[in-house]
Amino acid sequence: MQPVSHPDASLNCKGFTLIEMMVVVSLLGILVAVGVPSFRAMILQNRVTAVTNELVAALQFARSESIRTGANVMVCSTNDQATCSGVWTNGWVVRNAGGPLRVWPPAREGVAIAVPGTVTYTPLGNVTAARCFQLTLDVYQRFVGVSAGGRVATSANACP
C-alpha cells in the first residue's frame, strides 16, 4: 500500500517571506540607532573611570610605602618615567629620595588630568598639602581628592 499524498504538499515550504525579513531588518536598524549613542557614552565613562582607578592605586601605593619605609614618598607627573617633570597626562611616578618606586604609563587618549603640584606622603601617612585631581574626557568628569590626613576618595560631582 502506498501512502496517500496531499494535493497541497508541494506548497508546504519552510522559510521567511520577504516582508518578514524586511520587518526584522528595520527593527534591528531601530535598535542599533538607539543603542549606539548610549554605548559610546558608556565607553567614555569607563575610560575616565579606568584612569581614575589607576591614579587612586598610585596614591594608595605611595601612602603605604611612606608608612612602610618611614620616609616621604611623592606622586608626581613625569615625562621621562624617572623624575618629576611634565604633565599628568604623560604618566606619573611614585618615588622617594632613592628614586622611582613605580611608574604609571600615560593616561588613555583624550583624558585630561588637572591638579596643582605633587602629592607628598609623610611617614605617618598624611600629606603635606591636600590635593584635588580633576579627570575629564569629553563631557565626563571624575574627581580624586586627597585629604590632609592622606585619605583618597573619588566622586563624579566635585572633590570629596
TrEMBL record:
The keyword Cell inner membrane applies. Residues 52-150 form the General secretion pathway GspH domain. Its main location: membrane. Coiled coil: none annotated. The keyword Transmembrane helix applies. It is a single-pass membrane protein. Keywords: Cell inner membrane, Cell membrane, Membrane, Methylation, Transmembrane, Transmembrane helix. It is found in: Cell inner membrane. The chain crosses the membrane at residues 15-36. Belongs to the GSP H family. NCBIfam families: IV_pilin_GFxxxE. This is Type II secretion system protein H.
